[in-house]
Amino acid sequence: MFDDASNLIVGLEIGTSKVCAVVGEINADGQLNIIGLGQAPARGVRKGEIVDPATAEEAVRQAIVEAEQMANVEICTVYLGVTGAHVRGFNNRGVHRVLSADRDITKDDVSDVVKNARTINLPKENSIIHDVRQHFLLDGQEGIVNPEGMVGSLLEVDVHVVHGVTNRMQNSVRLVRNLNLEVNEIVFTGLASALAMLTSEQKEIGALVVDLGGGTTNYVLYANGVIKHTGVFAIGGDHVSNDLGHGLKVPLSRAEKLKLEFGTAVVPEASKGRTITICNELNLPIKTLSLDHLQRIMALRLEELLQIIRQDLEEAGVLHYVQGGVFLCGGGARIPQIAQLAGAIFQAPVSLGQTNSISGLKSALDQPEFLTAIGLVKYGSMRKRKPEPAGFLPNLKTIFTRFLPQR
Amino acid sequence: MSTNTETQTPALETTGTPVIKIIGIGTAGVGLLETLGGAEFAGAARVAVTTDQASLTASTATQKVLLENKGLRGLGTGGDAELGFSLAEENFAALKSACAGANVILLVAGLGGGAGSGITPVLARAARETGALVLGFVTLPFECEGNRRCAQARASLDQIKAVADGVICLPNQKASKLIDDNTSMVDTFRISGGLLAEAIRGVWQLMTRPGLIQIHLADLCALVRDKNSEGVFAFVESSGPARAREVVEKLLAHPLLDEGRALTESDAVMVSLMAGRDLTMGEVNRIMEQITRQCERAQVIMGASVDDAWKSRLSVTVIAAKHSHPPVEPVEPGAHRSGRVAGRATPTSGPSPLQMQQREQLIKQHAAAGRRKSDTKMKQELLPLVTIAKGRFDKSEPTIHKGEDLDVPTYYRRGMPLN
Known about the structure:
The complex is a heterodimer.
Chain A: H1 2-6, E1 8-14, E2 18-26, E3 32-41, E4 45-46, E5 49-50, H2 53-71, E6 77-82, E7 88-97, H3 107-118, E8 126-138, E9 141-144, E10 154-165, H4 166-178, E11 182-188, H5 189-197, H6 200-205, E12 207-212, E13 217-223, E14 226-233, H7 237-248, H8 252-262, E15 275-279, E16 285-290, H9 291-316, E17 326-329, H10 338-346, E18 350-352, H11 371-385, H12 396-401
Parallel strand pairs in A: 1-6, 6-11, 12-17, 17-18
Antiparallel strand pairs in A: 1-2, 2-3, 4-5, 7-10, 8-9, 8-10, 12-13, 13-14, 15-16
Helix pairs in contact in A: 2-4, 5-11, 7-8, 7-9, 9-10
Chain B: H1 4-8, H2 12-15, E1 20-25, H3 26-35, E2 45-50, H4 53-58, E3 63-66, H5 81-90, H6 92-99, E4 104-110, H7 114-129, E5 133-140, H8 147-163, E6 166-171, H9 172-175, H10 185-208, H11 217-224, E7 229-239, H12 243-252, H13 261-265, E8 268-275, H14 281-294, E9 299-306, E10 313-323, H15 339-344, H16 353-375, E11 400-401, E12 404-405, H17 410-413
Parallel strand pairs in B: 1-2, 1-4, 2-3, 4-5, 5-6, 6-7, 8-9
Antiparallel strand pairs in B: 7-10, 8-10, 11-12
Helix pairs in contact in B: 3-7, 5-7, 6-7, 7-8, 12-14
């Protein structure tokens, strides 16, 4: 493919509030450099999924063109981020009996057990986005990284599977293909954000990445170096604006502005009894609102969102892994006091959107909103550098090709 | 059936099993009575009461009461409920004697016509005066039968509710959801009649069949007595290995139970299970657990019986009773009728014991109403049914998490006051 020769990697995220394209380049030392970024306000996307392809396509085109100009390259293929309420993650275990006489575990045994773990009972309309190997178990002994060459009779493997509804993911693939771009792979955006933010050390200790997007909130929990849990809730910044519009009886566009100007995740004592006067374009006052109400409406929504995530982790039995830290990204990471709120809910240190895993990134690009797209580039570079990285199964590409034919 | 006259006479309390009379009223009621024959109902005395000689001669009922006067010329009431009502009042003594000697009286009628709507309330009162437990099983007419019949049926139902211990009502219009459009008219009536017969059969089995878990008459009385209740019922049947799950599913999707909503609103629920010898405790548990979860407020009684002839079949009859609101109008029947009829038909003399009884009943109902007020808090969870504008998410796929629609503003769901 053209890209293989050029060492160019492009990540494209079609978000609910904006489309973001990031161009990365692998230099001679094998290092990843971000060389371009384009963004455009998205329209025609709700809750992370496309509802109006025509307007969404226009936004994608703008973002791609901007990225092309900045990087001075021509973009042909992209790694595409997908999300939406239909995306789910769960853990599955594959079992394989070692039948050879000497009980030596061969490469075939390893590929068999991985294959077994992948055969899962999904609804017909769903397909797998990722299946990430976690750990091997040999005769019940946990925590084996590579069993090849070891001796045992029962080999098991845990994989984390992320899957979604094929047709709904196909929508964004179709849109990108309409722009004469090839899609290398589709990637769950939560996973991409985590790749951009976490160092391997943080993945080892345990870390929760929460991407507070416009239409969806994606979260990924890493521990012991592997993905333990993923999830999506179709709640995001749009909901905050909508709540404000509903509660304060102002139009959505105004609510959006108020959110950016006065929004906070924790209501400060000082805002009690204070009011805001909103003016029209001639600077004449139209309406007076209570600041306290605005902030309480917003705080309630954000607190509920984080509580639901916490509850989900608790039910999955993985909440204790969060102690390593909570990493927030997406536009929601810009909300004042959000770190304080997240810290109180998860009882863990909180850090806000910074890429830790990519060298040579211009600081102007190191913004929480761009992290997902940067993570997509990072994902692409990992796929490129080692065709079979430890965590990802070899035939991911073949899985993906199922999305490509226009059936 | 020739055994009937003997069955009435023995002393009621000594026999242990209740003496049950099934009384069919009007053409529809008498017709339904025919379907309730056979060996299964051998223990019951069946009484036909009507104004129409023709339907009475065709009936196989063990006892027949013809209400006649010269004015009718043997042609029936012609759909006039007031005529039926005044006829019944004239023959009150005859009706009362027809009811005598039973512990339980089941009234079967199709409301809407002259005889059914007119006679049934009077008969219910007569039956109550003999001291029996009175349960009404009535159908309401299809909407297409015209508003006069519908109005007549509604008025009659209110009167029956006021005097009977319990009324189980099958609105034909609702039952028509169970019947597909291509069914012939004749079959439709037969099926809706069949449904009512199923309800009667369910109650019958409950009371008479020696069950694994028997519901005694006393339980049933305690459940419906003086509660002035209006009931709905459903009958479902299934067979095969997954039958327990299937019956529950069918039950909760049953149109007559408003897809299970009727259960949540009910105050008393009676469940009768019937199956072959292979009925397992696990199945009973599963069914009862699901049903009781639906109706947390209700008092639930259940009975289970076994029939050797039933192989792998399982049927469940559910009767859910909701206590109606205390009637505001005086309950004395006839009092809110037109002056013409009231003038003619007041054989009740002075402040009868019935009135005393009704007064007590009213007091009890008020007490129940007080209780209902405290229940309102539990019903709060129904609130999301009220449409709340979801702004920009109005038309998108709702984000439901644990039964909560998260698209609705959080402050709204949490009830944060905005002033």
